[in-house]
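Risk register update: the risk of archive-format incompatibility is retired. Evidence:
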Amino acid sequence: MDNKVVAAGVQIEPEPGGWRITIPAAGEGTEQPACSVLLLEADAPGPGRRLLQALAQQPLKLAALQEAGATAIAGLLPKTPPWQPAEGPPRSGSSSCSCAEASCGHAAQAARAGAAAWRAATPEQRLTLLGWTRETLLAAVLAAWAEAEPLPDAAEALRAALGPQQEEARARAGGPSIAEWLAEMAEQGGLHAPGPQFHDVQIQLDAVEPPPPDADAEALAKLLPGVRGAAKGLGLVREGVMQRAEELARQLGHKPR
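Archived output:
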């Protein structure tokens, strides 16, 4: 990933423990920079780590980052350069200036130019200078969540949630428990297997013979000894249902395919 950022005519590139500020040449007609200075990180943990910790505590901000990019978390990005301490001048690395002159004074010049460039940088550029892209930051937050609260084995977690009753039911039925079924479907990427669509299904309705006379009329009468005509009423209900079914079958049979 190219993590160099140019803003306000100044190039900034993150390096381990700091940021290298490249100042353009003072004179005209030359493409060679006057010098580049490595300014060290002012506070620990670094701003990139602090941003990760902040997003891990704000899931809505994380969702906004995924949806809209760095602009959505601009308020979490440092407004002042991360090499600028609360008090005193920025620290520079030993032999950090490319001019290799002792007491050249370029560190202070690079700090001022870098601060102006930082203020002019876009949220996406600041995110880059903190060592992140949207994708790597999202992945890092999810990894931090997983490390803080590791997910248990899916099947074991479901068994624990459903309790021993499911195991007993499985033993009686001789088949897999609901926990095993859910775990298997989750491994396949979904909790259901899509079936055929309506236009893929053909329905054929055939006439059926009317049912024989109520065979359990006597049993029904015995169950309802206080209800007169219970068996006859059941027969009428069945007859009405059959007539309605035949009517619906005729209507469906005349519908265009």
